[in-house]
Amino acid sequence: MILKIFIFCIFILGLSPIANASENNFYDKGKKLFNEEKYDESKFQFERSIVYNPKHSNSYLYLGKIFKIEKNTKEEEKNINTALLLDPRNEEAMYILIDLELERSNFSKVQDLKKDFKKICNTLCEKLTSIDTRLKDFEKKDAS
C-alpha cells in the first residue's frame, strides 16, 4: 500500500512540470503571435495559458491589450483589473488602467492610481510625466 502511495506521489509530482511547461508554452506562443499582430490567434493562446494557470497575470495583461486593440473597453478593463488583482505591482497594467480612466475623464480615480503607480514604478516611471501632461491638458480644456 505504501509503495502505491509513493508511486502515485511520484507520478503527480512528475506531471507538475509538464503542466507548467504547457502553460508557459501557451503564453510564449501567445506573446509571439501578439508581437506579429495576430491578435485572434494570440488571444486563444493566452486563454489556454489561463486554463492551465488561472493566476497567470501576464496572460490577463495581454488579453487586456488585445481587447484595447479590438476597442472592447469592458473586457479590456476586466482583464487589466484581474492582472492587477493577481499582481498589484504590475506597472504596465496599472498604466493601462490609468489610461482607461483618463479616457473616461475620471480624474479623481487617475489621481489615486497615479499615487499607487509612483510607489511601484521601476521601468515605466517616465510615464508619470505623460500622465501629468494629459491631466493638465484636460484641465485646460475644462477651463476653456
N- to C-terminal distance? 81 Å
Strand content: under 5%
| Mean of residue pLDDT values | 85
Task: Give the tally of β-strands.
Answer: 0
- Calculate Rg over CA atoms: 20 Å
Shape: elongated
Number of helices: 7
Structural class designation: mainly alpha
The major beta sheet can be summarized as: none
Give helix and strand order, one letter per element, not per position. Answer: HHHHHHH
The low-confidence parts are 15-20
Helical fraction equals over 70%
Structure explained in plain terms:
- The structure is a single chain.
- The protein has a domain at 88-144.
- It is built from seven helices and no strands.
- It has helices spanning 2-35, 39-52, 57-69, 73-86, 91-103, 107-120, 127-143.
- It has 144 residues and is mainly α.
- It is elongated and about 75 Å long.
- Helix 1 (2-35) runs parallel beside helix 3 and helix 4 packs antiparallel against helix 5 (91-103).
- The relative contact order is 0.07.
